[in-house]
């Protein structure tokens, strides 16, 4: 067992968990932050993507005990009070979801993508968005509107 | 997963000591090891996380060589190895963005997946793998599928790549896993051309010496037109036959050479 301490969505959290606890399990089962979805549990689908120390990663393929002291942001931490993050608003405005299961991961990946391209001064083309979404799978195959959502949000972020 | 304990040493000495335990297994970014543990294909009693050790991190360039710390992520290599563009481009095509933010060069080399991209870069570049006890030339390092020259408990500290005059890596991604169905790395140095092939062979990465000899005379795609890659020992599975992979080797080698000229 390990006593894990980290910051999740700006709040200090801790929990006594077995060493083999995945970050996705810690978030969902200990902290009850069930917005981080577990789709495939095999690193393929990206529904569990969260940000750790500012970088997107797959929470189902990260051990919670290896993230002592980390700053984690989940889908629950994006909105500013009642005001949606521009990426969340864009998914809403552009019908960027159908069943919604992949949406938390899509949004977390897309926020990381836009931040990274802006920081590096690179142009985020439609082709680049599609390439960057390689690790996020939408079983409803709603990719066209997801790409439109990311383009829309990128212009506002 | 079976249960295990995790240790997070912050110095190399502590990590070396911890790995002397027969039941201990090194953990880098975990992008291969964690899925392996989930499938219960491995059951170490103790994982020694190597990502909190400062000596294993960072990228530097000096005297025609790039040095990359073993715990450096693929995303960092893609972003910061500007002196060796083909290597940076290779790192930027591994897995997906989230995997690249976590997976490390040391982890992939220690695992030696037969379809890993970095193995081709290391072999074609003539890289040097420095561990806590010695330096291993890439030519002596890869011993077969998931087999390397690393001893029990030996830790990769950094990997040094000589920077070639020009190089290119071309990968045909297996569409589900994004691993290389076949990947070909071609690098031209003052003393000759090296061609390394990953993804294709049962025994992992290998050099295509006939192509190297042909390209030493002339670095042009036509130089290998008369050659055929041998399909003996190549992987045959639901994604492609051995003959198909042999065909891809030549196609990708031609693409790499075209990209270099």
List the helices and strands and how they pair.
The complex is a heterodimer of chains A (157) and B (261).
Chain A lengths: L1 E7 L2 E7 L5 H8 L18 E4 L2 E4 L12 E3 L12 H8 L9 H18 L5 H7 L10 H14 L1
Parallel strand pairs in A: 1-5
Antiparallel strand pairs in A: 1-2, 3-4, 3-5
Helix pairs in contact in A: 2-5, 3-5
Chain B lengths: L4 E3 L4 H7 L5 E4 L5 H6 L7 E4 L9 E4 L2 E5 L4 H7 L4 H7 L5 H4 L4 H7 L5 H9 L2 E4 L3 E3 H4 E3 L2 E2 L7 E7 L3 E8 L6 E10 L2 E7 L7 E2 L1 H9 L24 H19 L1
Parallel strand pairs in B: 1-3, 2-3
Antiparallel strand pairs in B: 4-5, 5-10, 6-7, 6-10, 8-9, 11-12, 12-13, 13-14
Helix pairs in contact in B: 3-4
Keywords (chain B): FAD, Flavoprotein, Oxidoreductase
Protein name (chain B): Xanthine dehydrogenase family protein subunit M
InterPro entries (chain B): CO_DH_flav_C, CO_DH_flav_C_dom_sf, Diverse_Substr_Oxidored, FAD-bd_PCMH, FAD-bd_PCMH-like_sf, FAD-bd_PCMH_sub1, FAD-bd_PCMH_sub2, Mopterin_DH_FAD-bd
Describe this structure in words.
The complex is a heterodimer of chains A (157) and B (261). Chain A is of the alpha+beta class. Chain A has helices spanning 23-30, 86-93, 103-120, 126-132, 143-156; strands at 2-8, 11-17, 49-52, 55-58, 71-73. Chain A has a 5-stranded mixed β-sheet, sandwiched between helices. Chain A starts with a strand and ends with a helix. Chain B is of the alpha+beta class and 261 residues long. Chain B is built from 10 helices and 14 strands. Chain B has helices at residues 12-18, 33-38, 74-80, 85-91, 97-100, 105-111, 117-125, 138-141, 209-217, 242-260; strands at 5-7, 24-27, 46-49, 59-62, 65-69, 128-131, 135-137, 142-144, 147-148, 156-162, 166-173, 180-189, 192-198, 206-207. Chain B has a 5-stranded antiparallel β-sheet with strand order 4-5-10-6-7. A 4-stranded antiparallel β-sheet of chain B has the order 11-12-13-14, sandwiched between helices. The model of chain B has no long low-confidence stretch (mean pLDDT 96).
């Amino acid at each position: 067992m390990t006593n894990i301490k980290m910051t999740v969505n700006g709040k200090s959290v801790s929990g006594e968990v077995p060493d083999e606890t995945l970050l996705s399990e810690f978030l969902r089962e200990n902290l009850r932050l069930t917005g981080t979805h577990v789709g495939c549990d095999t690193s393929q689908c990206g529904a569990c993507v969260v940000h750790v120390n500012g970088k997107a990663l797959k929470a189902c393929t990260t051990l919670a005990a290896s993230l002592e002291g980390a700053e984690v942001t989940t889908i629950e931490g994006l909105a500013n009070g009642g005001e949606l993050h521009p990426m969340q608003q864009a998914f809403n405005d552009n019908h960027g979801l159908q069943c919604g299961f992949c949406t938390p991961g899509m949004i977390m990946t897309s926020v990381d993508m836009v931040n990274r391209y802006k920081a590096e001064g690179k142009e985020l083309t439609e082709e680049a968005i599609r390439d960057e979404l390689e690790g996020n799978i939408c079983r409803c195959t709603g990719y066209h509107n997801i790409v439109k959502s990311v383009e829309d949000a990128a212009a506002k972020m | 997963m079976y249960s295990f304990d995790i240790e997070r040493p912050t110095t190399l000495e502590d990590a070396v000591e911890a790995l002397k335990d027969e039941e201990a297994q090194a953990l880098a970014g975990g992008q291969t090891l964690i899925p392996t543990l989930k499938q219960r294909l491995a059951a170490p009693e103790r994982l020694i996380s190597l990502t909190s050790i400062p000596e294993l991190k960072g990228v530097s360039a000096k005297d025609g060589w790039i040095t990359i710390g073993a715990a450096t992520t693929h995303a960092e290599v893609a972003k910061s190895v500007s002196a060796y563009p083909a290597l940076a481009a290779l790192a930027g095509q591994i897995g997906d963005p989230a995997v690249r933010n976590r997976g490390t060069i040391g982890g992939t080399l220690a695992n030696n997946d037969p379809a890993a991209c970095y193995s081709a870069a290391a072999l074609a570049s003539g890289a040097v793998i420095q561990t806590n006890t010695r330096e291993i030339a890439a030519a002596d390092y890869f011993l077969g599928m998931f087999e390397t020259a690393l001893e029990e408990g030996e830790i990769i500290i950094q990997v040094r790549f000589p920077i070639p005059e020009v190089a290119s890596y071309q990968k045909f991604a297996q569409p589900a896993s994004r691993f290389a169905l076949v990947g070909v790395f071609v690098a031209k140095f003052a003393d000759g051309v090296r061609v390394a092939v990953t993804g294709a062979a049962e025994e992992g990465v290998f050099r295509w010496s006939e192509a190297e000899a042909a390209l030493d005379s002339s670095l042009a795609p036509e130089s290998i037109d008369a050659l055929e890659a041998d399909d003996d020992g190549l992987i045959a599975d639901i994604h492609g036959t051995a003959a198909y992979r042999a065909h891809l080797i030549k196609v990708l080698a031609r693409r790499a050479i075209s990209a270099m000229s």
